[in-house]
Amino acid sequence: MPAAQKKREKEKLVIEWMILLYCRRKHRAKNGLCTECEALKEYAFMRSDNCPFMETKTFCSCCRVHCYSAGMREKIKLVMRYSGPRMLLYHPLLAFRHTAEMMKEKRRQR
User: Fold this and answer.
1) How do residues 21-52 score in pLDDT, each as one tens digit?
2) Are 37 and 27 a contacting pair, CB within 8 Å?
3) 55: helix, coil or strand?
4) pTM of the model
5) 25 by DSSP, 3-state: which?
6) What phi and psi values does residue 43 have, to the nearest 5 degrees?
7) Measured on CA atoms in the order 17, 22, 23, 28, is the torsion positive or negative?
8) How far apart are the first and last CA of the chain?
9) Which of 2, 1, 7 is nearest to 101 (CA)?
């Protein structure tokens, strides 16, 4: 699997877990995601699949070009603000890897 594809899959995994955690807690979804969160996940996956910068970026949050529409950007920010800290409890390895990659990218951008 090419490096860009591996990055896409990692990014999708992180966002899927974050949206799932958010939806379970905020929307009380029992089996899977509510329709709003499912649409957000599909949108995020579509943006990731079509990203021309995948070779050089780590995560969407570190990208210089924000391709999300304004409404979806606000929704994903809410999800990340809520789920980010809680990921340490529910999926610590994934949270640690994500944080380490983001820190490395921010140092590189300086």
Assistant:
1) 999 999 998 888 999 999 999 999 999 888 88
2) yes
3) coil
4) 0.88
5) helix
6) -65, -45
7) positive
8) 30
9) 7
